[in-house]
């Protein structure tokens, strides 16, 4: 039964809601899903693994999301902001290590105005024109997204977290809206970004039916990137006592997403590596083809804690790079020096 469903998904890139639920809920589906997803990933991208140099440039945030360690009401966070020069220094080091995409990630920090973000993006593009710049800085107005794009930003990551409005309200303060977050993603797509959405697997209140709703939303959005990882609790949030997300469900969903969206870019996340010592390797084997090592300065690594026990906060950038290459090679994949654009996306020249 499961083998037939997986064959149907591989052929049609879609299933009924009930069929998706069967694959999500079946522990026995994990290995056959993995094998099918790996085959499709190799058809589309070979054994290439694309690196994204992550620069966590501010841990200030105006929002108070219930799951997040840098939420504004957490008094135990040691706040920081990187300067323009520090961000460029991270890029310079990363470029020498073979990174050709830089991901600027931060809380929704009002200090970083549109003007400041545009200056940073244009500086990176001017010095390293062969590199892609990805932004992950939250919800903005259309004019802001357009300004960043005009300054040279190529991609934008904005996890939708959940497509179900009631579930969204369980995870976020009342002033935030799931409908608005979705509208931001469509705006980004319309402007011309390579767009990334995604969810936490096992977030409080989540059901498998919610995950099917997420798949349907992603089919509507048609993003170039889908970032999923397990929910991991943080001691200074209202969800401190909630259980972490489950490894094999996360891996099954990774494989289902590879089969449903054959050309999508799928990260094997740091959260997955935090949940299990071989989590990132298991993610690659389940269909993922992106890893995002940290290029942030050592002095701030432990200050950007969205969840507890985050890995790689004590490694130098060169250590992260060489470790990633070794880990990928150990399970049959090859880290490449490449921008790693999504297949089927016509990038601007």
Description:
The protein has helices spanning 2-12, 17-25, 30-45, 84-96, 114-127, 142-151, 165-171, 178-191, 208-221, 247-260, 270-275, 279-285, 298-301, 317-330, and strands at residues 48-51, 53-58, 101-106, 132-136, 155-157, 194-201, 225-230, 290-291, 334-336. The chain is α/β, with parallel strands linked by helices. The termini are far apart. It has one domain (35-336): Aldolase class I (TIM Barrel, Alpha-Beta Barrel).
The percentage helix is: 40-55%
Quaternary class: single chain
- In total, how many beta strands? 9
Beta-strand percentage range: 5-15%
Provide the number of structural domains. Answer: 1
Structural class: alpha/beta
The stretches of 5 or more residues where confidence is low (pLDDT under 50) are none
Which helices and strands occur, and which strands form pairs?
Blueprint: H1 2-12, H2 17-25, H3 30-45, E1 48-51, E2 53-58, H4 84-96, E3 101-106, H5 114-127, E4 132-136, H6 142-151, E5 155-157, H7 165-171, H8 178-191, E6 194-201, H9 208-221, E7 225-230, H10 247-260, H11 270-275, H12 279-285, E8 290-291, H13 298-301, H14 317-330, E9 334-336
Parallel strand pairs: 1-8, 1-9, 2-3, 3-4, 4-5, 5-6, 6-7
What's the gist of this structure?
By secondary structure, the chain is of the alpha/beta class.
Provide the descriptors you would attach to this structure in a database record:
six-stranded parallel beta sheet, 14 helices, about 45% helix, alpha/beta
């Amino acid at each position: 039964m499961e083998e037939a469903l997986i064959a149907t998904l591989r052929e049609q890139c879609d299933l009924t809601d009930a069929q998706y639920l069967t694959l999500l809920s079946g522990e026995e589906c994990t290995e056959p899903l993995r094998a099918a997803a790996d085959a499709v990933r190799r058809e589309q991208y070979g054994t290439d693994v694309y690196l994204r140099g992550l620069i966590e440039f501010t841990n200030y945030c105006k929002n108070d999301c219930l799951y997040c360690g840098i939420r504004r009401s957490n008094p135990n966070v040691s706040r920081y902001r990187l300067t323009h020069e520090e961000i460029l220094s991270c890029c310079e080091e990363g470029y020498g290590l073979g990174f050709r995409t830089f991901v600027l990630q931060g809380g929704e920090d009002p200090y970083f105005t549109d003007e400041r973000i545009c200056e940073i993006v244009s500086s990176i593009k001017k010095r390293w024109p062969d590199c892609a710049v990805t932004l992950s800085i939250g919800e903005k107005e259309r004019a802001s997204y357009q300004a960043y794009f005009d300054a040279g930003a190529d991609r934008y990551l904005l996890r939708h977290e959940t497509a179900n409005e009631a579930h969204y309200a369980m995870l976020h303060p009342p002033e935030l809206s799931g409908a608005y977050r979705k509208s931001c993603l469509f705006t980004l797509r319309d402007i011309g970004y390579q767009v990334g959405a995604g969810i936490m697997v096992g977030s409080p209140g989540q059901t498998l039916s919610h995950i099917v709703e997420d798949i349907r939303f992603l089919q509507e959005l048609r993003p170039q990137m889908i970032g999923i990882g397990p929910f991991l609790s943080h001691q200074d949030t209202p969800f401190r006592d909630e259980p972490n997300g489950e490894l094999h469900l996360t891996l099954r969903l990774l494989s289902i997403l590879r089969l449903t969206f054959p050309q999508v870019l799928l990260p094997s996340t740091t959260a997955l590596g935090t949940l299990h010592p071989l989590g990132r390797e298991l993610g690659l084997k389940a269909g993922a083809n992106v890893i995002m090592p940290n290029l942030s300065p050592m002095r701030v690594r432990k200050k950007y804690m969205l969840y507890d026990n985050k890995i790689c906060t004590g490694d130098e950038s060169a250590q992260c790079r060489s470790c990633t290459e070794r880990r990928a090679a150990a399970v049959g994949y090859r880290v490449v020096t490449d921008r790693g654009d999504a297949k089927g996306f016509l990038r601007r020249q």
